[in-house]
Write the structure tokens for this entry.
Amino acid sequence: MDKQRVIYLGNIPEVSNLLWCSNEFELIAVLYEKNRFSDEMLLFKYSTGIYAKEVSNTDEILTVIQKMSSIDAIIMCGFGIILKEKLLNKYKVYNFHTGELPFYKGRHPIFHAIVNGEKHIGVTLHLVNEKIDDGGIIAIDKIKLGYRDTQKDILNQLPNSINRMIPVLYKSIKGKIEPNENNHGKYYPPVSRNDIVFDNKTNIRKVINLIRAQSIYNGAIFKDKNKEIRVIGCSIKNIKKNNSIKNGVVYESGKILGLKIDNQKLLFFNILNYQDEK
């Protein structure tokens, strides 16, 4: 097989390893964003001998790539730097986006899909242009999103999803696949603090989805008067006789347990911390 010479932009060791071990590609280098080079990526670098360098903009990426000969394509996954036209005009650039395009455009598609109650996460292989998640669609793979699944569960399945699309990526680089249109859809802005806050009036379904969407990021935030609670998990428990209930919030000895959801049950919070609002 005629291996394609590629550069990986990102900091996901499993993606680096897929390209490194692939029969279709020869991984030439890994370029990563500032302060995002993990210990596991460092281990990958030294165990494989792959060249790795920190970059912060398109000019720095171009400087590195232009020193290398015959690059067939650039592969992105988990890379936040927006590439400029001067690079995109010279090289084929592909991105593995953890959202089904065109419906979930933006930096945090898994969060929004979980909060929206989706049954799967789409992983989209698409061409890259100057607009965010706007290039032609090459392939879409789907990961099941169960009612207990968190972002961690999805990210653990991401390498297998990408691996299923590797043959399609190879054919596209070779010019054997035409991209599909990536029109319309929706762009979701980056997740802000306001997006992860809930209170005793928030719909219970949204509360549960917020908590699991934020479980690996210090939890969702429950607002209780002038205090806030970081909640990283939840479960269903019985309300006890010694529990007090006020405005739908269940307490035990003055401490919040969770939210009342029917006459006998509560949504019990797994609390990371409980502190005065700053």
Q: What stands out?
A: The mean pLDDT is 93. The CA atoms of residues 239 and 262 lie 9 Å apart. The two ends are 60 Å apart (CA to CA). The chain has two domains: 4-173, 193-276.
